[in-house]
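Archive entry: two folds, one per protein. Generate the first.
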Amino acid sequence: FDSIPQDDSVTVTDNKNFNIDSFRRLHLKDMSQIKFGIPVSTSFVYQPLNYLIFLRRLITHLFLTLFFNWTFPLVNPLNFVFTFVTFPVLAIVFFFVEIVFRIANRIRSLSKTTEADAIDLWKSLSSYPVEKNLRKGFNSLDRDVDDPNSPEFNLNRAEFLLWTSTILYSRDEHLVAEAYKKIVKLKSNTSTQEVQQIIELVDKSEDPVHRQAAYFGLKFTSLTECNSVGGPYGGIFWSEYHNFIILSFKGSDVLSLTQWLTNFSFQRMDARPFLFGEVHEGFYTSLFPDNTDESVKFKNQCPAVRLTDAIKRKAAEIYSKTHKPVNLWLSGHSLGAALAILMYVRIFASPDSVGENVNLRDAYLFACPYVGDNDFASGYKFLENQPKNATKNLWRIIND
């Protein structure tokens, strides 16, 4: 898909031009650039590559810990037991538990049952006027900046942005996996039929998200698979009649060992090429290059850059109609919240990446894990304390 020109068409072997939506083209390019060999996490038989990579890293870090701090078992016996015994044992147990979960998940995917929409589920769980509150939150996204002297936590807005993160879970990951398999098999010369099949699979996978987003007149497109298939992914919501964009991320799949290992792993890496300090390695490499020479060469093709390019393009379209800076909101849940906070800090630190037509507003993060060290937090705090950024707020919502 790197050969797809910028006029939204790709020349294929039967000498026809196949029209591809510009945002779908970005998404397909993203899928085609996922590192070769990353397992499709929705496959029936669990592929252990990610798990084995994790074990290799775990063993390496445990060895280095003992090598440089051989008194660790004596000084911190409880931490030693947890780090060297409990955690590895749990990782092995989870491996076998996930096999059972995947079999159950596959059986469920083959059934004809249709899951209820998020808004209907929320109604069944709450006596509050769910639709009314969501509508208020939706309408607040158009609002101009809040009072910088009194940052406002808008509960209805938080509820609506949680809803956008929730409906991302309804995408059919099995169809995305099928599309990815077809992309991997593509050759330099491709046919209209092959491209059509891939686009139809991706479009169909998003049908549940589109159906629910349409309730509020929103449109949606996936933009990045965050360097994996069947795991977290990011996309944008927008409306033709409103002045905002929402960048939202799907979180962890409760049945995915790979994603839980990503959440629980304690490796950090230098984030200064794009952010501050050191951050969680799994979160960082879902969006940015992994700092290897080969990866850095393609830094302009990483998921984070693809997201900012798409936001810049969509904001320009909206601005041409409203002639007002376009509000940009971010949301995410769990692992998705971790990715959202990294993207928020990236855009916060480099506003030019999304262009002059974008007005970065707030991020609403739900059940967000810790992502960085003190240097990362200090770098963000320095930006936040600047007067020009007084209207930008990052809200972490937890169930304490």
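Generate the second and append.
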Amino acid sequence: MFGDSASWHRLGPALADRGYTVLAPDLRGHGASPRGRYSPTDWALDLVDTVGATKIDLAVGHSLGGLALAIAAHALRPSSAVYLDPAWRMTAEQDVRSRAEWTAWLEWTEPAQLRERLGGRWPEADLALRWESLWRMDPAATPRDGHRCRLRPFTRVGAVAVAGPRSGGE
């Protein structure tokens, strides 16, 4: 949440150096993307529209992007998919708690608040990118009812990495 294509500033070039063509679309309501109606299905359909018939060897989705990728994977048909801390299988209580936490981030007015939340774990340049992307996001895109999303299994999963209980999902 509150991320955009700038989040891939390290991984994108590393994959390109290994011969991959890298596409890093902003989900609707994030970064430079248009605003509009927001739901996991809308984000997935946007991915399908953006990527089109492009052959995908490797698809990587983080957080909300992981949820959108999981929904779109059957249409995109990547050879392999990697999900980084995907926003899957949330209980109703987790959904409410997560929404409240992310909504609170929108009240921040100083980068120091983000630095404190992340506990000094991020390099200063990455922190600055994250702060900028926070303000490119439409607050209305904070997901609602994410726990209601039902995913069809995708059989070519390369990896799923989830955040630890104290990381807060960053």
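Annotation attached to the second fold: The chain has one domain: 5-161. The two ends are 9 Å apart (CA to CA).
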